[in-house]
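Quarterly update, task 2.4: zinc ion-bound model.
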Amino acid sequence: MLTEGDFIQAQQNPQLRKEFVSELDWSEIKDWTKSVVYCEKQDYLFDGEVSMLTKISLIPRVLNIKGKKSKIIIYPASFYNSSSRVDSLIHKNFGDFLSTLIDHEGTHAKQFYFQERKKLNLLHFLRKHKWVNLEIYVALNVLEAEFPAWENQTNNFSRRGSSSDFAQGVMRRKDSARGFYERNKYLLEQFK
Ligand SMILES: [Zn+2]
């Protein structure tokens, strides 16, 4: 079983990360997760580095097919000590890392498995082709995908032994997203 010490070593030494990821215990989310893999090449979203990402293939995603397990990709940013994206959300300890993997990405995997993000899946496709504006996409993303994931993280912080910096960072993020959502929710009227 991996320990805090293993996590610190993987933070310090990039060469250990692939093996570290292969030894992670994610049995808790195995019913909706196919694999958890490490990707050495850092990926970016509009607001900076991605730490982890949950993916299902395009066809089940666009056609809202239930029962498909996700692949969770872990990027180098999961091991960074600081980040250009949101410094408060860097993983200070192994509990923070597991909070993102099991409680956050695991929630996304479950959402895909039960297709709880139908409108978002359509919008994801439209957004890829820039057929829908960013505010609409982000507002719906926050509503259908991120609120439940942050909620699940919040409920499990003490169990994971997450750092208070990280826990506060997640809660701040949730609050600012709530503000954004409140300001932009009128944009979603057309998707009802
Ligand atoms: Zn998320």
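Highlight for this quarter: Residues 4-191 form one domain.
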